[in-house]
Design a protein that fits this description.
This protein has helices at about 1-15, 25-40, 40-60. It is mainly alpha-helical. The chain has one domain (about 1-60). Helix 1 crosses helix 2, helix 1 (about 1-15) crosses helix 3 and helix 2 packs across helix 3. The chain is flat. It starts with a helix and ends with a helix. The relative contact order is 0.17.
């Protein structure tokens, strides 16, 4: 369950780079789930760290009111 959520978030972050439709992100997320699952707990940690880093960068880039 957690692996699927992290895979979906990884797919979303990768798809945000080009700003086009979500199909590419969904496919990449599905591939990421299988890759992260094969890597075991390390894969989940790496996927979660990737998503957290992207979220932190996005938060730092937003101007404060």
């Amino acid at each position: 369950m957690i692996g699927k959520v992290i895979g979906a978030l990884v797919g979303r972050e990768i798809d945000r780079r080009d700003g086009k439709g979500g199909l590419k992100g969904a496919v990449i997320g599905a591939v990421a789930v299988s890759a992260l699952r094969r890597m075991g707990p390390l894969g989940l940690v790496l996927g979660g760290a990737y998503v957290a880093k992207k979220a932190l960068d996005r938060r730092r880039d937003t101007p404060k009111a």
